Amino acid sequence: MSAESGAESSVKRASARGLTQRVVRLLGVVVLLLLLGAAFLRLDLSRTWSAIATTDVRWLLLSTLVFAAILPLWSLQWRLLAPARSPLAATRMLEVVATTSSVLNTTPMLLGEATAIVLLVTRAGLDRAAAVSVLAMDQLLVGGAKVVVIATASLLLPLPPWMSRALITLFIAVLLLLVALIGAAWGHVAVSRWLDRVTPPRWRGQHGSLGAALAPLRSSRHAGGAFLLALAKKAAEMGGILCVQHAFGVQLPLASVVLVLATLNLATLLPVVPGNVGVYEAAVVLAYTRLGVPADRALALAVVQHACYFVALALPGYRWVVRRGLAPG
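Above: the chain sequence. Below: its structure as tokens.
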């Protein structure tokens, strides 16, 4: 087979994979819309809008502010995960995190992650290996924090069997990622040599910073601090959920907040649609109806909670996009 025919075959395979992914995503969206449509037919939407109209706006503003606290916590976490030889200004990392959050909450899957790597390289000044390492460690911490939230929910309230099974699956996935990253952190010389052999020629010789990039995993102070910040972000998210409950005058035990967040963490593991629109609301409704809240009121809580979350985490990043774009420096 000639080089040209091989390249053409590779392009065709890539195109077929892309088409398959688009078809699967489209089917997922169609199924989601059908499920939401069926649910809406059983709801009294007039009561839902009435509940929204009677909310206490002050609690909603506070909820938005509490959700927004996730961004500086996230920024501080990524500064801990960045190589020590590359000290970053707080405002620069906050810009990177806020813009990444905006993309994650408004675009399809993987675009947010790709944007994070680009911003860490162009705006934060990290090399490619360090940027990928920061993102990998962030995913590890996010997964670990989700395991803690769901496990806490299982201790406070009886969970349905599917959530218990999902918890075990998530725990195994996080454990495997932890083993892989720790292995790369301590055996970075061998890993760098292996990557030089298997990656494209233009990337060879760029993996030497892998050891420094994964240094936080070799430091209990950095790794522990970063994980505490991951838990603090979850605490801020629970605070925002609690404020929305107060805005609607819903009186539920504190464990309800943990259950809502645990359900959200599982439902949004793989973003099927941009911003998890529909998925987010369905997860919140599922949690609240299990707690005895009427479906129409649960929908009102879900819609408003997602709106507060979106305003807090999706809009701030566009401030930098509008003012300075994505240009380095």
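Residues 163 and 266 are 8 Å apart (CA to CA).
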